[in-house]
Structures are given as structure tokens and as C-alpha cells.
Amino acid sequence: MPSKPQKRKSITISDEDETEKVAKKANTTMTPSSQLKKSSEFARSMQKYYDSPRVIVEVEGSKFTLPKDLLCELSPFFDRAFNGAFKEATEGKVTLEETNRISFEHVIRWMHMGSIAVPDPVVYDEKAFNEVVKEYIGFFVLADRLGLPGPFTVDMQSLTSTVSRGRYTVSKENMRQGTNLPKNHSVRQLLADSCIGEYIDSVTEDTNFRLGEELEELDGFGYDILMAFQRAAKGKMDVDDNGSYIEDPLHKGNAAYNILFY
């Protein structure tokens, strides 16, 4: 019998009582994003956040009641909003427009634990693959918007592992989503690396590039592709009677993913 899909555990906080439950749990199981500490020291470090005033962040109609000091210490965006000369500071409430609720839940988790957790889909197909990639990119875009300091090492490793599995290609939608990040961002580099083989094949075989429209329309996407090619070309290169090969940046050492060009 197939297993039932696991439901996502929501961390939406709707009232003060629920906030206190999360606060108590944080004092025993959560890790601050800066560094791991001994449990007693960690409890003291977290206490300052949960003794601070509460503020409300509204996302897609959901209200999150959170410690003001935690938000302001880790996000310049929230620091300006809640400590500046704006109505948000007076009201103690910020509404994040054009923001995905799940992305914000990941931000809250990162603030407490230093990493996020995107659940694996029950049925893993191309649609599910791209939903997972979309969720990671959504977090990185919002983290950049809020000015979270990082590091995002664990999350970047998880996204890289997902993208480099090689079974499916990253969707056009996700490629477009990634261009909301700054140029040279690690996520943009990863997305470009994931399609460099397709691009070179389209050039050497004179075929249409799957992301041709994105190449023409998206600001900086052509630059991303060029930098991805340079990274690949500077890596391992082999030559035989059939031509020259550069190593696929996401599948190093795997001949099945080597890129052929003449």
C-alpha cells in the first residue's frame, strides 16, 4: 500500500499563546543562525529575543507574531521598518507584498536554525522536481530582499544536490525566478551551470536552445550563460578523434554528462 503524503508542518503563528509555545521550543531545540553554542549559553542568547516586544508580519493574509529583536538583528529590512520613522514602527506591523507565505516560513526557520528544510515530494517527477527547486529559489530571493546575512552553506548544498541529480531539467519558470537575484549570486550560477550543456549542444548542432526566449528577454541571463561556459572551459578538458570535451560543471567525472563541441 502506498504511503500517505506527509503534510507540511506550518509554523504560522496566529496568537500570543502559540508564539510562546514556539519560544519555549526554540530555547531547547533551535539553533541561532550565527553559531552553535552550549545549551545554557544558547538559552540565554535566545531569551533576549523572546523577552523583546512582539511585532506582526503579514504575508498572503497570514499573520506571524514574532520577536522584534530577532527580526531586526538579522534583517536590515525589518530593522528599518520597525525602528525607523515609518507607520510600521508605530503600529508594530509590516505587510510583505508580493511575498510567498512558504518562503517566509523558511525565513523564520532559518532565523532560528540557520538552515531550511524543503520536504521531498511523495511522487518524484519533473513537476515535483521543479516545485522543490522553486521553493529553494523563493527562499533565496526573499532572503536577499530582507538582507539576511547568511551563510547559506547548507541550503546551497541542498539545492545543488537537487539540481545536479540529472533526471530533469530546470524549468523556464525557475530560470526566470532566479534572475530576481543579484548578478553572480550562487543560485544564478548554479542555474546557468545546469543548462550549459543544452546551450553548447544548441550551438554545435545548430538547434534551438530551450531557453532561447529567456536568453533574449531576461536581464543578465546571457551573462550567466557566458560565465557558466567559462567556468566549464577552465575545468577539465579532453580531446580525442571525435572532438574536444569539457566537463559538465554539475557532474564532474561522469562521462555521460561530458559536453562535446568542435
From TrEMBL:
Residues 1-10 have a biased composition (Basic residues). It holds the Pfam family BTB. This is BTB domain-containing protein. Residues 53-120 form the BTB domain. InterPro entries: BTB/POZ_dom, SKP1/BTB/POZ_sf. It comes from the Eukaryota. It comes from Hymenoscyphus albidus. Residues 1-37 are annotated as: Disordered. SUPFAM superfamilies: POZ domain. Residues 26-37 have a biased composition (Polar residues). Signal peptide: none annotated.
